[in-house]
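// run 5 | inverse folding | seed 20
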């Protein structure tokens, strides 16, 4: 499980560890098998469910000599009625080797058969720090479905895990480094570019780009006017929404909230909008589109995330707090209806002096979405 992303960790930044995780993420996105070492020095391998195919399961079996199992989030296991609600990761196994088809059917709602689960399927919660938990976390970081087929190397290497991985031509990553990854990334956020970008209705605007050292997606600070650092700044934390912000999708309220925030900050004279690379409440655009398909079957936005195996909201606001700090702002008047943003910013050391409601009327398509936010996510409107 990931470390809680609230305060500055004491951990020194280990750039080599971050690079290893970053390479493993890319390998997992390419559908490669990745070797994972746990704290006890044992080694195994994993492949994401999105890319698992018959040959990938066979390869995993051949490489490790172990019996592949499926690691999913506890959320997904709960949806499958295999576990009570809870957090963490669950290992699903069969007395025989799981097939690629079975893995897809269990992990991916698009493939879920309407019928029964495979006979003999057992579910067991695994420990944080385990290979299974690390593999699911890696898939989630890679913005894939949060599930992986995982196998323990039956014949543990006599040499190091690195030798074993090299012998099988696999990238090796440590479970602990995956768990620390997010917090390390936040701590490496640095300003990399700044420019004046006059906006319609807010001509005195600058955009400052922040990049993490791993080369991951940049977050942007859009600074309107000249906010005084010694005063609480009017601030909006806006999570990226390609469909709403760019295309004007009516499924959500993001486009209006984005343009509305810029207009309101300009009207009040100054402030900052953080445009955070957290598409789909942190699950990524592809998974958000999957969530939309599930919503079209009658589920709400919270259920849809959970059916995919995600939490209703996967966002963390430590990057936002870090950007505010680097820009010199210690206190904010936060434009939001979301109590979680208020709580998390405060926990990350930013003083929230005031909540400024940021409400827009429904548009004929997003009534249900807004109702769910109010009824299930605690949004204040
Ligand atoms: N997973 C998922 N994400 C969605 C859906 N609709 C919108 N989003 C995402 O939700 C985020 C909206 O974020 P915000 O408007 O910043 O946050 P909020 O929680 O509504 O809070 P406030 O607007 O501040 O009150 C964006 O990342 C959107 O891409 C959906 O149905 N499913
Ligand atoms: Zn949106």
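// decoded
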């Amino acid at each position: 499980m990931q470390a809680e992303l609230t305060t500055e960790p004491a951990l020194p930044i280990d750039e080599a560890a971050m690079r290893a995780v970053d390479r493993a993420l890319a390998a997992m996105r390419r559908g490669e098998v990745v070797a994972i070492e746990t704290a006890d020095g044992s080694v195994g391998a994993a492949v994401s469910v999105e890319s698992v195919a018959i040959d990938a399961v066979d390869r995993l079996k051949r490489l490790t000599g172990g019996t592949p199992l499926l690691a999913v989030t506890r959320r997904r296991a709960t949806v499958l009625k295999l576990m009570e609600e809870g957090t963490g990761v669950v290992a699903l196994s069969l007395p025989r080797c799981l097939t690629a088809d079975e893995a897809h059917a269990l992990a991916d709602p698009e493939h879920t058969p309407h019928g029964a689960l495979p006979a003999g399927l057992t579910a067991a919660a695994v420990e944080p720090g385990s290979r299974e938990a690390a593999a699911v976390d890696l898939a989630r970081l890679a913005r894939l479905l949060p599930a992986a087929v995982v196998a323990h190397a039956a014949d543990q290497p006599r040499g190091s895990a690195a030798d074993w991985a090299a012998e099988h031509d696999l990238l090796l990553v440590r479970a602990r480094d995956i768990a620390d990854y997010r917090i390390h990334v936040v701590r490496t956020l640095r300003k990399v570019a700044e420019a004046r970008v006059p906006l319609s209705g807010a001509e005195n605007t600058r955009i400052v780009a922040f990049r993490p050292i791993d080369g991951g997606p940049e977050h942007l600070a859009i600074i309107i006017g000249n906010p005084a650092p010694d005063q609480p700044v009017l601030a909006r934390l806006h999570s990226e929404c390609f469909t709403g912000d760019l295309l004007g999708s009516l499924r959500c309220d993001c486009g209006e909230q984005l343009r509305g925030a810029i207009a309101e900050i300009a009207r009040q004279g100054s402030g900052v909008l953080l445009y955070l690379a957290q598409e789909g409440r942190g699950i990524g655009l592809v998974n958000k589109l999957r969530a939309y398909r599930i919503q079209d079957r009658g589920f709400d936005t919270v259920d849809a995330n959970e059916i995919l195996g995600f939490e209703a909201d996967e966002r963390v606001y430590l990057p936002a707090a870090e950007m505010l700090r680097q820009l010199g702002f210690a206190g904010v008047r936060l434009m939001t209806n979301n109590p979680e943003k208020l709580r998390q910013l405060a926990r990350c050391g930013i003083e929230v002096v005031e909540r400024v409601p940021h409400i827009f009327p429904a548009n004929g398509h997003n009534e249900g979405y807004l109702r769910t936010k109010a009824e299930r996510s605690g949004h204040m409107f």
